[in-house]
Amino acid sequence: MKLGMVGLGRMGGNMTERLREDGHEVMTYDRGAGERTAESLTALVEQLEAPRAVWLMIPAGEPTEEAVRELHGLLEPGDTIVDGGNSFFRDSKRRASDAKAAGLHFVDAGVSGGIWGRELGYCLMVGGDEEPVSRLEPVFVSLAPPEGYAHVGPPGAGHFTKMVHNGIEYGLMQAYAEGFELMHHSEYELDLQQIAGIWRYGSVVRSWLLELLHEAFEEHGSALEDIAGFVEDSGEGRWTINEAINAAVPVPVIASSLFSRFASRRDINFSAKVAAALRNQFGGHAVRAIEQAKSRPENPPG
Question: Active-site positions?
Answer without folding.
Answer: 162, 169
